[in-house]
Amino acid sequence: MQGFYKTLSLLFLFPIILSSCKKERRDLEFSVDLLNANDLIKEVIEEIQLNYADNVTREKLEIGAINGMLQVLDEHSLFIPNEDFNAYNQTAHGMFLGLGIEIKQIPEGIEIRSVIDESPATKAGIKPLDIIVQIDGKSVLKMSSKQIASKLGADSGLKVKLTLLRNKNETLDVTIHKSVVQIRSVKSEFIDDIAIIKINYFNDGTLLATSQAIKEINKKKPVGVILDLRNNPGGILDQAVGVADLFLSNKKIAELKSRNVEESKIVISDDEDLLNNLPMVVLINSNTASGAELLAAALGENKRAVLIGQKTYGKGSMQTVIPIPGRGAIKLTTAYFVSPNGNTINHCGVSPDIEISEDNTLSPQDKDPVIVRATDLLHGLTALNGGEK
Question: Pick from 376, 309, 380, 378: which is nearest to 349 by CA?
Fold first, then answer.
């Protein structure tokens, strides 16, 4: 979801002295290879336009070629058409028209990875790990990615009927009315003397909202804090890094690794923990991803918090959105991040200190067993510390 924004610029360098004949030959070979590749793409497009059974526009073929190149790289790099770019930016600012779900294509259909609180999807009873198998009576396996995005997003009607598969054996039909979804990235509450900070997503207001929540929490002097990152799909990475900084004092948050020297760096927190080392638990599950995994690993490996829940998703990469004026943008993986102890997060995830399964059959009135386990642990730590707040 996640990325930083930068403009695409071209810098032409005309060296006065060539460093060596070998370098000149490598540059020449690269130019010839690029020319051959361009000729191949051009020839294939021309053959398709001449001989394919249906008429197809050159623009459609060019976009298909771009998507093909990006999909070869990894599942997170993609092309964003110009008509979708504004909607993508709105998501970063925390507002869009839709259902309030994050999805991922799997062989069985469309898996719901996370559901935004107080969204139309939440009100309809949709849960993470539900699988969409039909949209308006049509199998998603017979629909293109663009058709699916259009049906679920703002491009089509305000009402959509979904057929869902839950727990691999239960089929549900749900009709949802789309509305403007406000991503409230941070919520806080108290259970007796324990404060809970729930971060749903990292948008451009998350760091400020978390800082404000901590200030309000400190006024009530809790005995411990639960940071709930379950079903958090990530978002803007520097916001996740900034939130980690709020809880750590002079500690390594993460290391970014990239071919680009400017992107490679070690991130260290400042010297202030806004919670003054108050006992802390972080909740994670299999839908905790990207920046949320970075935050969990930073707090867990620096012994600032105990991690409770399930192993996380395993997306330890940073995407940069590079605008292409008038055409859209590409979202490109530009760096990987590793944990403070040097552990790879990408495809590996972050393991909890205490593993506990979630119960997806709970009603809103039931107690969340993961929260119960976390509050019990914090009360136990408080007792060990002499009961001081």
Answer: 309
The verdict on whether 290 is a catalytic residue reads: yes
Element (H, E) at 294: helix 291-301
- Set 119, 290, 317, 339: catalytic member: 290
357 catalytic? Reply is: no
Question: Quick one: pLDDT band at residue 15, thresholds 50, 70, 90?
Answer: very low
Is residue 172 classed as helix, strand or coil in its secondary structure? strand
Mapped onto helix, strand or coil, the DSSP state of residue 277 is: coil
Which two structure tokens, joined as six digits, stand for 300?
A: 């867990």
User: Residue 282 carries which side chain, given as an amino acid letter?
Assistant: V
Are 128 and 101 in contact by the 8 Å Cβ rule? The answer is: no
- How many CB atoms sit inside 10 A of residue 379's CB? 17
How does DSSP classify residue 185?
A: -
Q: Give the residue-averaged pLDDT of 269-298.
A: 96
Catalytic residue among 301, 331, 339, 358: 301
Cα–Cα nearest to 216, from 233, 238, 195, 242: 195
pTM of the predicted protein model: 0.75
- Indicate the SS3 state at residue 328: strand
Give dist(CA 329, CA 327) in Å, integer: 7
Instruction: From the candidates 151, 251, 315, 331, give the one annotated as an active-site residue.
Output: 315
The pLDDT tens digits for 266-281 are 999 999 999 999 999 9
Amino acid identity, residue 368? D
Domains of the chain listed by start with CATH number: 23-83 (no CATH), 95-182 (2.30.42.10), 186-384 (3.90.226.10)
Report the alpha-carbon distance of residue 162 to residue 121 in Å, rounded: 11
% of the chain surpassing 90 pLDDT: 52
- Determine the straight-line distance between the first and last CA of the chain, rounded to whole angstroms: 38
What's the one-letter identity of residue 240? A
